[in-house]
Amino acid sequence: MDREAGQGLGEGRKGVEYIDYRCYPMRDYTDMPEYLIKGLEMAKCDYILVIGRPTMAPGAGLRGYKEVTTKKERLLAPCIAVYDHPGMLEEFEDDGYSWIEMYIGDAFMLDVSEMKSKEDYKTVLTKKGKRNYTQKMKKFNQEKNVEYELVDWVGSEENIDRVWPLYAATGEKNGFTVLTKEDFYKYHRSVPNQKVAYIWDVTDGPEKKKLMSFCTAFVWKDILHPMWCGTDYENPLNRSCATYFIILYNYVHYAIEQPNINWVDLGASQRATKTSMGFKPQPCSAYFRCKNSFMQMVVEYSMEKYYDAEKCIADP
């Protein structure tokens, strides 16, 4: 895959990599046989140029996908997929190309535009959700050996080195790591407007605190995206203090306090967990650009035979 594809042909880089677009390796997102993957790799056709937010939600969309990518990136890409709302092809034309729509699931979002306080957030929770929220927040706040911190992210090597092992361990536990180590470091060095939430184990005092959980987030337009998380699963305080939920609850609190933020986007997967926290499903489609009818046939066949949505979405 050509990591320098944004250079040349008279165009500079437009969108932000990893936020507006990124290259997804087919090895990680399809179930193609190994011999086919190797053949695609040799031909440099082993990736999809995906245009959309990393949560699977629409970004520039069909009407704006050329605005966030360069001509060279689009020409080199063996396949282009654009995230947008379902049913967008009815009023969309793109000279010289045909498009295929594939429904890929839901992104889970919370509208905080009218919320003024934590109490407003609680009104969107179910009875069980309110009980879980109250119990988890109370237990965490009463635990003297943990400390929550939300700060602006600084993409230094020291900070990335601190969080990478927890991200890698979490990916290993869940059986799937979205970002390689190279991409994880590149993302956290380059993406603007990032925040990071830390939960520290301060059992041995604040001078010897240990990182127990983290989640980096970014702001895109009026949407807050809590994204990459990691946890030290060997620390018993992680489970007893429900650190994953505490971080997400506090990101919601932060979004409510910010006048420029109207939404929180948690992306796909874990439907039961996210709906219990008040997040609503937003249907999303991927639109595949095809140069001719033969390519359209290849894409349709490949997606039907080798793409497994459950591998990416993994709803319980």
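(the above was protein one; protein two follows)
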Amino acid sequence: MSAPTVPPGDQTAAGGVPAQALFPEAYERRRRRRRAGAAAALVAAMALAVAAVIWPPWGGSTGTGPSGAGGALLAGRSPGPVGQATFTWRVTVAHQPRASGTEHLTLSGQDRALSFTRTDYPTGPYLGGTNSGAERIVGGQHYLLSRIHGQRAWIRENLPGYAEPKVIDPRILLRLLRARTPFRPSGTQVIGGVRLTVLTATDPFGLTRRDLLPVIWTSAEPVASLRVWADSRGVVHRMTYSFRYWPASILPTTPVSRAAVRRWHQSERAVHQAFLRSARYKERTGKQAPRRWVRLATLREQLFLTMAYPPAHGAEITETTVIYSGIGQPQQITAPPHPVTSG
């Protein structure tokens, strides 16, 4: 997958030197948590890949929320940003593409509308795929575009939902970012007839867990780079940033041999048999079966999976570009017609 390019416009770096690419080289940071082993990490990553694209209201950052600096702006102390934001993001693991996508978000105070497209690339024996969808929040009511009996329809959700990613008003975003990391000028660029100053964060790691950057894939991981484009009033028109997640693993799509794949399939069947054995034991005795039956079979299946598809190890890097438009301009977000109420 080709690397993102500098956005269109007349870009001039300080001193007349061409500006750097959108995504500077990320600084190597250790991830904030260790997993119980490479196999467990792979299984968790696969679960994330097929999870529904629903984000919590504060972008998923552990230890932050509506009480944090960013969340407070969306939780009642501010009417919320007004305008639009378009996200383009990609994830690589050990220099191999893992996922990519786009999100377009329209904001009008607490009302918002989101449309998204996401592509997951094949890993190991698991196929990739592309999905898309839409969400809306209008007057506190959450709507989700989904399929009912094979037909796309809007569903009125009874439980609270959130059309994410979270966006802080770009008119105050730079001030909040500067409180956590210093910036250095990296030249100017004319975009849409507006001359913007390019600012590069000199200590992006200081933003980690501060809940100020919209999170799509990575949650509460070290911020490796940040660059913003701001006008003379300090309004952010676009920004690029990356998270670096270490260590991470990814399965190759080609197995080492057919024999290794057969052993893995046999171990899969053994896991199924272990579950059946546990169920029969409980039915016969009324007691829970020993957990080691399923645990050992599962560990064996994970082992044979990694033997058939030896993982590549490296950093997981999430790169995101955000472009703001219609900043401060009224946006009309209406409830979808004829929504179906979920059970």
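Reviewer note on protein two: The two ends are 42 Å apart (CA to CA).
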